[in-house]
Amino acid sequence: MQLSCEVCHSPLRAEDVRLDLAVAKCHACNAVYDLSGRKARGLSAQRPEKLPLRPKVALPSNFRVEEDGPTTRISWRWFNPLTHLFLAFFCIAWDGFLVVWYGIALNMEDKPIIMILFPIAHVAVGVGLTYSTLTGFVNRTRIEVNRDQLTIRHGPLPWRGNQDLPGRQLTQLYGEEVARTNKGSTTYSYDLLALDREGRKVKLLSGLTEKDQVLYLEQTLERKLGIEDAAVDGELARRTHAA
Ligand SMILES: [Zn+2]
């Protein structure tokens, strides 16, 4: 049985697929996604019994979930003690240095223009970093999903990436692993993406820290949006042609 990637259509290698977990990670585009409930796409047409149903992914420890009739709300704080306390100390040192610098410059008799202009780029970095550190302390991401609508909000401090998407526009959700190498050590983060009916990629979330978070969101949101059921009972084709 040859599987190909649902996102970039490269043939998947044996090591890309964990049939026991029903999860695939494409070596070509780094997409991570659920393999169960894909029968409508012809993935398992010959041997449907070979693709197991994926067990329910455990709720990530920092996620809070509320069920409210047809609507599910998922939210989590951005705060991560290690990252944000380190950033807070860094901001205090950085901003403190600039305060001292400007204290000296503005108290000089002739207020030399070079001393005022020289650290302007550092001021910009300080403002950006301090703001993003503050969001780490106070912000949450809130997702509200039901059959018709997917809403994503970041706040209370404004941040890019709020979304309102009609549910029937999305045909598949998947994760993407992003690797960053710094001084020989690699850290991974995960983005959550969707394909719309025209096959275009829509980025839903970025910077998730755990693979389980993206797999949980993929599974839960697909279920609520009716994508998974659709794939199993063939409704997807009807929905696609209903446009
Ligand atoms: Zn791929």
Rg = 23 Å
Give the strand tally. Answer: 11
Unreliable residue stretches: 39-48, 229-243
Secondary-structure-based class equals: alpha+beta
Which molecules are bound in this entry?
Answer: zinc ion
Q: Strand percentage, roughly?
A: 25-35%
Terminal CA distance: 32 Å
Q: How many domains make up the 3D coordinates?
A: 2
Order of helices and strands: EEEEEHHHEEEEEEHHH
Helix content: 25-40%
Shape verdict: elongated
Number of helices: 6
Largest sheet descriptor: 6 strands, antiparallel
The largest beta-sheet arranges its strands as 1-2-3-9-10-11
Mean residue pLDDT: 84
Keywords: Membrane, Transmembrane, Transmembrane helix
Protein name: Zinc finger/thioredoxin putative domain-containing protein
Transmembrane segments: 82-104, 116-138
